[in-house]
Structures are given as C-alpha cells and as structure tokens.
Amino acid sequence: MRVTEQQVFGVLVNSYQRARFRALRLQEHLATGKQVLQPSDDPGRFHRIVGEKTTLAKLEQRLRNVSTATTRVDLADTALQGTTTAISRIRQLAVQYASDTNGAAERAIGGHEVKELLHHLLQLGNTEFDENQPVFGGTSRHGFAAGLALSTPLTLTNGAADTLTVTVDGVSSGTIDLTGGTETLGGSELAARVQSRINADATLVAAGKSVSVTYTEGRLVISSNSEGSTSKVEVVGGSARTLLGFNGGSAGVGTTTFVTTVTTDAAAANSGGALVSQGEIVNTSAASFDNYAVRFTGPGSFDIVNISAPVTVTANSANTGRVGKADAGIVDPQRMTLDTYEIQFTSTSQYSVVNTTTGTTLSTGNAYVSGGAVEFDGLRVVLSNGQQGGPATGDRFAVALSPRTVLANQPYTSGAPIVFDGIQLRITDGTSAPAAGDLFHVVSHTRYAGDSGNHEIEVADGEVISTNVPGEQIFSGSTVNLFDAVQRLLAALRGNFKAGIVESLGDLDRALSQVSAAQGEVGAVANRLESTSLALEEAKALSTNQLSSFEDIDLARTISDLTLQEYAIRAAGETLGRIFDNTLLNHLR
Fold it and tell me: Within the chain, what is the greatest distance between any pair of CA atoms?
C-alpha cells in the first residue's frame, strides 16, 4: 500500500499537536495546582469536588457563626463578672453603713459611691456586641408606656370608661373604643383587647404604627413594635385612662436595654381633678436616681421636692416616758403625703397615729411593742424603750419628712412639660385643675426594654445553639430587679434609714444568686461553643483533605509528565524536520 508524504506529514503533525495540547494542559494543571479544571476533565470527579466544596463552605460558615457567638458570650461573661464585683461592693457598703456607728452624714457619703456603682451596673447591663446589637437585650429594644398596678378583673363600660388616646412613635391616634357594652376582663384579656383596638386605629394603621400589649407584674405595658430612638409610646387621654392605670406610670424609648425612668402617680388624697403623664428620663447624665414629689401650693403654682431624705422623729418636750426613736424612713414613696404626723400614746401599751396637717386620726388602739415598726402613709417609725422604762400615757412624737426643695413656686400651665434633674412629665387639667395641696409622686426605677428573643446559630443540619441569656432573666428577673434593689438602698442611705439598708442585703444576695445562675448558663454555652468549634475544625480538616485528594495535582508526577511531553514535542519536531529534508520540496528550494 502506498503511503503518501501528505499522510506521513498528517500523522506526524497530529502527534505533534496532541503533544503540544497535553503539555499545555499539564502546564495549566501545574499553574493552578488542580487536576480537574472543568467538568469535561472528569465528570465524576468534578461532581464530587462540587459536593466537597459545598460541605466545606457550610463548615466555614458555621465556624464563623461560632466565632461570632463566642465573642458575644465572652462579652456577656465579662459583663456578668463585672456585675458580680459591683454588687459585692455595694453589699459591703450596705453592711458597713447599716452599723449604728454611722449617721446621716456618713450614710450620705456612702450613697455617693452606691450611685456611681449603679451607673456602672447600668453600663454593664447595656453592653453592646456591636452598634445596636445589645448583649442582654434579646433580639430588639422597644419604647414603652407602663401603667400603674391594677386589681383585675376590670370592668369596661361603654360610654363611661371605654376609650383611650395614645401616641405611637410620635403619631397620635384617634379615639380608641375598647368596648361596645359592659365587659369584665382579666389581665391577659385586657392586654389583648387594648392591643387589638390600638392596632385597628385608622390613623396608626395609615402611618404603619403598631404596638404589643402585655400584662406584666400586675400592670399593662404598651410597647411600640418599632425599635430605636424613635420607638416611643404614651397614653395621653381617654375615659379609660385612669381605670387602666395610665393616670401616671412610666415611659422610655428603645435606645438601651435597661431604661432608667420614673413612675408617676397622683396621690389618693388629691382634691383637684388634674391628671399626670407617664414619667420619663430625658437626660440620663442628669438623673439622680432619687424620688420626688410635685406639690401644688395653689391651683396655679407648684414646688418640686426631693423626698429621698431623712424622716425626723421628735419627742415632745413634755414626755415623761423613756421611749426614743430607733429608726425611721420611707418604705413606700408612692404613698407619701408630705404631711406631718404624731404618734400619741393613749396608755403605756397603746398608741394612735394622727395626721396633724389634716387633723385626721389614721389609727388608734395600736398595741405598742418596743422595737416594733409603726407604719403609715408610706413611712415607718421604730420606737424603743430605754433602759429605765417604756412609754408613759400622753407621750407624743412628731413625725415629718425633711424634703429638699428642687424648684419652688413654679407657674402651672396645663399640659406644659415639667423638667427637672433629667426628668420630664406633664400635668394636665382633667375634670378640673389641680388644687392646693395636691401631690404627684415621681419614683425612680429601671425597666427592661428588650425582649425575650434568643440569638441562635446553626452548628449542624437541624441543630442550633442559643447564644444569649435575655437580660430580663439576669438583671430584672422574677427573683429581684437588681437595679431597683440598689435604688432602694440608695434612697435608704440618703434617708438615713437603717432598716431600709438592712433589708437591701436580702435583695442584694438574691441579685448575686440571680447573676451567678446566669453566669453558669453563659459558661455552659461557652463550653459548648468551644467543643463545637473543635468538632467543626476537625470536620473542616477532613473535608479539606478529601477535597485535596479529588482536586489537587500530584506535583512530582505532573512535572514528570510535563517533561516527557516536552521530550515528545522535541522528538516530533526533529522527526518532521528530517522527513522534510528528504522530500522533493526540499530539493526544489
């Protein structure tokens, strides 16, 4: 069979081109370090590589999740350690100043340190993982309006006590009708009714505003469903306002996890018809954590007094018994009247309590016990026998609070803001204007503005880890609100009230236990995250090795193959050259 020169050249050129192509592919493998560059290289292997890369990407994402969660948990643990240290120091101060060797001046000095420690506790409770990502705030923070304590069930009556008007995030509602008849509702039913009717208000719906309402700790709390500095709720009117506990109460915006605020209320003995708004702190740097009262000196003027002050007990100069004051202080600032009183012994074993401002006898025939508590109108007085005897018939003790005047003779304008010591509230004419002697309490406390949401991370298919403990369980849990406990201690120190200082020790011990329990939970989460991280790192290493076995080249073998191909190319080129030398074309040159 005749073989033409064209056939010979064709075979050799094809061999040369194949060698060049194989060398090019080997150079690509060598440059990338990968043996499968496209599906056509090895469809089966390519599919396995894609699967391993997907697995590896999942593992890397889960490791990032664990790293982020670990940072959050570490921040929580550090904050809780700081909280424990601060509470322990506050407890030391309480023990120190409970001693009878301390007087009003010494206890006031202790109050300064407790105030600074309270600020520090709030900073720890408001720790943020990142901007607007609170460590203890659950998943969001909301502005709120919290009412006064209620006795449920309550009866809503159409046309009498059945409406509310509110503002939500600065948007004013229309008149919200709560019932079309007469209904008696329990706490949770009441919350559900108020929520549904507010959220059906046409003005709020048009503005995209809505609320959530809960019945918590015996009071209604209306929270905005928005978050941040514009998140705010206020109950401003309606025939059911007082019935539902919103002639007073507290408010705050959703900027921090724990909101320092004040609860306002109108004294039960007020003769005027004025209403008071929910109180709020508008300047936290000016907040004192003290308790106050707004006292009307006439229908058009008022004073503001600081009632975190000592209660004085003065024995009448005509007394013949051997009883003296052992202690005195405020136990319930929301029952304070600012009136003067007398404890009058009607016999050696009985006494009466008389309001000397109004001339009213509050109680009579009370059995006297040396060292026992005498309580009335938010005050507690402790009288004790001396070494030489007890009370005598006719003995009298004058009791009065010595408040500090913050603002005096302020002009009253219905609905105008009243601002002092970082606090803001409004008093408005209701059924009538305020009367002389009317009193409005302003009591400091701290409220949780976060939610109960959990931060969860995925660590395996169908497996998640909760990485936070909502601050409500830690700082203001069912056992004790540690911020309010410290504020009560602060008031007792400023009021030179030994019993209040001693009673705070129990609250502080419960607060320590509450925080310690949370530390245990956080520690358990940290341990689980650590073990999860190790497991994920091992899985990542296995997946990486598996991917490498499918994808990576054998470097030595690839270099060897490339060298062989280069030899093949050189040989093919030389062969083509020699054959060309023997052709007729070469002789025709």
Answer: 152
Q: What is the pLDDT of residue 550?
A: 54
436/573 Cα distance (integer angstroms): 117
Of 282, 232, 230, 292, residue with least CA distance to 260: 282
At residue 554, the pLDDT reads: 47
Q: What is the pLDDT of residues 341-367, one digit of tens each?
A: 999 999 999 999 999 999 999 999 999
Report residues of the chain scoring pLDDT below 50: 554, 558
Helix (H) or strand (E) run with residue 459 in it: strand 456-460
- Give exposure, 427-436, as e/b (b: 16+ Cβ within 10 Å): bbbbeebbee
Crossing angle, helix 482-494 and helix 498-551, to 10 degrees? 150
How many of the other CB atoms lie within 10 Å of CB of 70? 18
Cis amide bond preceding 403, omega within 30 = no
Separation of alpha carbons 497 and 478, rounded Å: 26
Secondary structure of 328-342 as H, E, C letters: EEECCHHHCCCCCEE
Helices (H), 367-497: 471-474, 482-494
Q: Are strands 404-411 and 396-401 parallel, antiparallel or unpaired?
A: unpaired
Give how far Cα 6 sits from Cα of 40, 144, 291, 409, 583, Å: 33, 93, 109, 119, 11
This prediction's pTM: 0.83
